[in-house]
């Protein structure tokens, strides 16, 4: 249930509503909006008796929330959320391009790629320092050393940094160095990591699991938001199907589906879905055209010598072309 | 194998190559192109001894075709095929929009919708006269009566007609009335229908089966082409996956995948994939942006009273908006 | 709706009910059962006014059928159907094993394999004369010559014959020679073939499409039954999924799912699902244990020289072991 | 690579091989077998020069391991592994039945169900104390209180306990109370949890992710084994597909697929796959028949009042019937 406050309700009115909700045995979370504040009730299993709430000063009405998710729902927060980090606005007018290598390999590699993606117009640099790998014997990333390189990229090149935290240990250090903390597809239902992400001071980029429904993705975002972190960016990155022309099947219908029911900004990772660089430009154009708020793209100055996933990394000239072509797409 | 002729090779040279291929026990199919003619050898199971072919007048070289499909392959026909029907060019510069109701219900209904889609810029009118239905007890379409209405739409409104043939019987009459014969997703591997379509005098719009790989779609197109009909348009219409936010998952990566290996024009049906009209506009924009040569869209002047699939039919004003928005997409 | 007759109702009573249903504008199909006869009403779109039917002599009651399929439903026919062909009973106490090569290659090949499967206890011989092939250039079967070989196997070895009809043309000749007409997975929604199968004088073995739901399989069986052929055997043969350890994923839950809602006998084809002979014996045991009424198994005396799908054909000694092991399974 | 020792090789010989492997820059893990000891080399990226290893005393030969997983592979450990916990042998002659409620709700509930499953022949009691839940607002289990109840069940009823650890925190306490630590499907690629499980003193039951391939499941088991815990039981519990007759599609072909390439015991969870109790008995029979080493089954004395997933819990009389029927299945 949502308790919608009147336009002239004061902070004291809102606090009184929260206290009354706690008296009823639930939790009340204020959701300030552009037009009005609402207080979301969580923790109830069935209908809530709203008579005492409606009697409080400043309360306009109550609304039943029909979805299992609440804080991520457009019902509780009708305006689309814009996540602003410095000058960069994710969820705003212009799509935000996040680009870089699969893994940070060295300072030289990171700077080479960062300079070229910056020059083409990317605002965020991606690169893994902690890599979730199918095999225990594969390269697992440079760890904190990689994060320090990313921080240097941030400071010297002026790009925001998005990088993945893969567990409860490295999320502490990722939080310290990154501008956006990525939770990968395989961890989308790692609930203790989600709860920890909900306590982080940085925005979270949450990738859809490759076999997760849209509702499950939103429930995972709800885990993060229910801990207090409202800065969540969702990411479609392909799902597992029988189809074998791409590594995974990019589900671009996820974008209008999510935007219909949630206020959270949503970006697309065409590189991991395609698994082949040849398809990344057309899929990027498609993603922007369906309404994605940004892209997460793998770029490498020398893909054939990339430490991992070289097959899907764009060559610099391909990335330059991608940036030019998506500028022509009216969303 | 492909026997590539010299630029100055004559028709007699080509015929001599075809005869020699027949002497070797195979079939030879001439493939005229903008730059050169090639003769495709089909019917061989392993490598072909090309020494006698290379010795013939007018032969430039032989090329081994690496794919199981040959006539549909870009290896044998490097230029993209443009299918011209009157003034309409499918596969050319501009995407071609095919729009109309799921089923022809009456002359009045068809004309009402045809007029409105024509006004918005559609060049082809879609509408089923023979409907493949999951249940034997459902409305199966108006049959030939429906085709006559479509012919009247063609003559009086000036739209091309695409409509589905569902079996060996009704393809005869569909061929008579339609400008483009549609083979539906459930018939994509109905090989006797494909062979019959290969003997038709009209272009074929072949829909991808909802569990077919790209290779299987191309092999089905090869069935049609191997019978002599080179006018084949492919159509992505969504595949079956676990994902439940849409009826089927629209696989827009199919477009670059097909265009990489085949010269055939390819369109997208966002209506059947989405199953909900709310997603048709964004998915249409995405389809055009990834490079589709056209769209197949369901439109109804009164969706809530449509005889079938009303949930996915666009309202007239939505279709008008769709046409306007896709005009802004640079492919 | 189902009109249930009293135990002492006469044939004249039943005919009067059928006539009254026709007067109401629908079709009435008598469904004789062990205990009672019922008349199924088809062709209605909404509720039927049963007052005049209930007033007729011999009528006990009417029952609303809740499923989209009617004739295949256990609601209209509570007893499990047993299809008896000579001494062979499909759907009875003992599972019926149908075994043989993918394709009939020659009289010698067919007889060699038929003798060995007969010796091991198989009652039905399988072998394709008309093969639905992904490629137009692949071996498409021996055609009628193959059917004549199968007839000879029937006559001289004493096995029933199941073989596939792939279109409206060859079903005529398959009906003439075969004991059971197979409709393959790719034709599960070839409705004109289903209707023709519904007019056939022989039982139909209908395979589940590799992306068909159970409800769709039952609706396809309904097409056959609605034309008058009540002898339908269903077959699970694997579905398309992301999983790559087998060619298709054998869905053994299909057996209890079908038996819950339908009275039709259901068999399993482990060979096409597995795509590898190593898994055929365990999957056969699993199929019998979940309650399948039989198996369709590929066997070849010399798999490495089989004309098609040799990889999945059992060696003779493997088939002998399979027959021994499934005899130990209590269903 | 695998260094196979002679039958009469001593422990000192083995240790010398391990040291030499470390000198080469890799890790060497001894794998004692019934017939021979082998030392598995991990950490190499390409071929290993085995000349110095072959020269060591007690070394018989080296074998190249062709799979990405090594310790779980049957190549390195040809005999099937039997995990013995007290008298219970998982992977031996008889399938081991693990049964109990979805969640531990109270001491009374746990004891009621434990007594009934023990009486029917189950050897292991299942029940969740930490529940991974899609919604942050759902009941998340009794936590350590639940574990203490399980320990009491172990001590007073004499059943082994299997219960899930969902993160790095609760695995410490689960390890203390449980006999077998379960890693759930959603955590199959939670690599830090897998590494921690690899350091545990108790056997691990690792469930296949609902979109994981067999190779990925085995790679996750490799994570556990590479940390030193060789006691790993695998579990098939259904995969996500388009098919809607069950919650997930139980992939029984996983059993022969795993057993072909791995020596680890493998059990089946039919309850979570089916999502409906009606299908649990036939699927259990199927699982035993294909060769599963055991079952994980949900049972509740009062399913309609179960705290979660009541729809799939067996009634006591159904579980009694299941135990009787699987006793009749010859594997």
Q: Based on the structure given, which CATH architecture of the largest domain in chain A is correct?
A: Alpha-Beta Barrel
Largest sheet of chain A: 8 strands, parallel
CATH superfamily caption of the largest domain in chain A: Aldolase class I
Overall morphology of chain A: elongated
Please tally the β strands of chain A and state the result: 14
Number of domains of chain A: 2
Here the CATH topology of the largest domain in chain A equals TIM Barrel
Low-confidence stretches of chain A: none
CATH class of the largest domain in chain A: Alpha Beta
Mind explaining what this structure looks like?
- 4 copies of one chain form a homotetramer.
- In chain A, the strands form 3 sheets. In chain A, strands 13-12-11-10-9-8-7-14 form an 8-stranded parallel sheet. A 4-stranded antiparallel sheet of chain A has the order 2-3-1-4, with helices on one face.
- Helix content of chain A is 33%, strand content 18%.
- Chain A has 11 helices and 14 strands.
- Chain A has 2 domains: 62 residues, Alpha-Beta Plaits (2-Layer Sandwich), CATH 3.30.70.1140; 245 residues, Aldolase class I (TIM Barrel, Alpha-Beta Barrel).
- Chain A starts with a strand and ends with a helix.
- Chain A has 331 residues and is an alpha/beta fold.
- In chain A, helix 8 links the parallel strand 12 and strand 13.
- The first copy, chain A, is elongated.
- At the A-B interface, helix 8 and helix 10 of A face helix 8 and helix 10 of B.
């Amino acid at each position: 249930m949502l308790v919608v406050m009147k336009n002239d309700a004061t902070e004291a009115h809102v606090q009184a509503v929260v206290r009354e909700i706690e008296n009823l045995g639930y939790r009340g979370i204020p959701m300030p909006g552009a037009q009005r504040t609402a207080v979301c009730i969580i923790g109830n299993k069935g209908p809530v008796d709203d008579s005492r709430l409606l009697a409080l000063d400043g309360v306009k009405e109550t609304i039943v929330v029909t979805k299992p998710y609440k804080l991520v729902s457009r019902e509780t927060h009708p305006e689309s959320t814009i996540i602003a980090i410095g000058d960069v606005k994710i969820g705003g007018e212009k799509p935000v391009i996040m680009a870089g290598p699969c893994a940070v390999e060295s300072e030289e590699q990171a700077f080479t790629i960062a300079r070229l993606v910056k020059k083409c117009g990317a605002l965020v640099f991606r690169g893994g320092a902690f890599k979730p790998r199918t095999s225990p014997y594969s390269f697992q990333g440079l760890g904190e050393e990689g994060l320090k390189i990313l921080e240097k990229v941030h400071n010297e090149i002026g790009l925001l940094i998005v990088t993945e935290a893969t567990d409860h240990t490295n999320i502490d250090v990722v939080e310290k160095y990154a501008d956006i903390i990525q939770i990968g597809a395989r961890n989308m239902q790692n609930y203790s990591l989600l709860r920890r992400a909900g306590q982080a001071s940085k925005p979270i980029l949450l990738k859809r699991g490759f076999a997760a429904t849209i509702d499950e993705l939103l429930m995972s975002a709800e885990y993060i938001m229910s801990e207090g972190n409202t800065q969540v960016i969702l990411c479609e990155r392909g799902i597992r199907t029988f189809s074998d022309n791409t590594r995974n099947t990019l589900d671009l219908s996820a974008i209008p589906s999510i935007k219909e029911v949630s206020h959270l900004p949503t970006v697309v990772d065409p590189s991991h879905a395609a698994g082949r660089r040849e398809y990344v430009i057309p899929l990027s154009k498609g993603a922007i055209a369906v309404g994605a708020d940004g892209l997460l793209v793998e770029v490498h100055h020398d893909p054939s010598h990339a430490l991992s996933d070289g097959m899907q990394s764009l060559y610099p000239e391909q990335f330059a072309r991608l940036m030019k072509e998506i500028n022509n797409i009216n969303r």
